[in-house]
Amino acid sequence: MRTKEDEISLFQSIPWISNLLRDDSFETIATPSRQPKPTTEDSFFSNTLNSPTTISACLTQYRKPQSPQSSSTANVEELRTFCTLGQDVNGYPGTLHGGVVAALLDETMGLLIMIRGEGGDASTRDSNLSQTPVTAYLNIRFLRPIATPGTIVVSAQLKEAIEDRKWTIEAAIRDEKGRTLATGECLFVRIRSRL
């Protein structure tokens, strides 16, 4: 498994991403869902889609909160994840599978919820989803084919938070030319225990 430093080095070698990594308004972190967990949470991204021929590298940045008093990630409203795609995630030759497009959008929007601390401690979470935010709906617009192999950026932005139980998030996948390839909108809801 690559370290955060390995991922940074790899993405710094890609000129258009290197420019984004230098943006001081963002904090660079290892992508949380790429880290194996004892609960098997995130296994789809940490194991299944973590190989040289699927999604070989991921790195995440979140925009630092505007408030100088807030060093907490609880107020983060925007993030972006860089992904290097291989040929084993194809639907058509040289084209990313639509299901993987959906997974990337959903995962990046979910990362925003997790970075904000809305999901609790993933290392102790079990199959009981009570109090855990989950995807209620995901709407996707496929605008252009996503070429593989290649590198993309998936950005997510919080649009609305209702109390501590609903979050509307929008996301987009872009290529090195800044073209929007796909967009998504998602509603996350916190599951409540039944009485």
TrEMBL record:
Coiled coil: none annotated. CDD domains: PaaI_thioesterase. The lineage of its organism: Eukaryota, Fungi, Dikarya, Ascomycota, Pezizomycotina. InterPro entries: HotDog_dom_sf, PTE-AB_protein, Thioestr_dom. It holds the Pfam family 4HBT. PANTHER family: THIOESTERASE DOMAIN-CONTAINING PROTEIN (PTHR47260:SF6), UPF0644 PROTEIN PB2B4.06 (PTHR47260). This is Thioesterase domain-containing protein. It comes from Monascus purpureus (Red mold). Gene3D superfamilies: Hotdog Thioesterase.
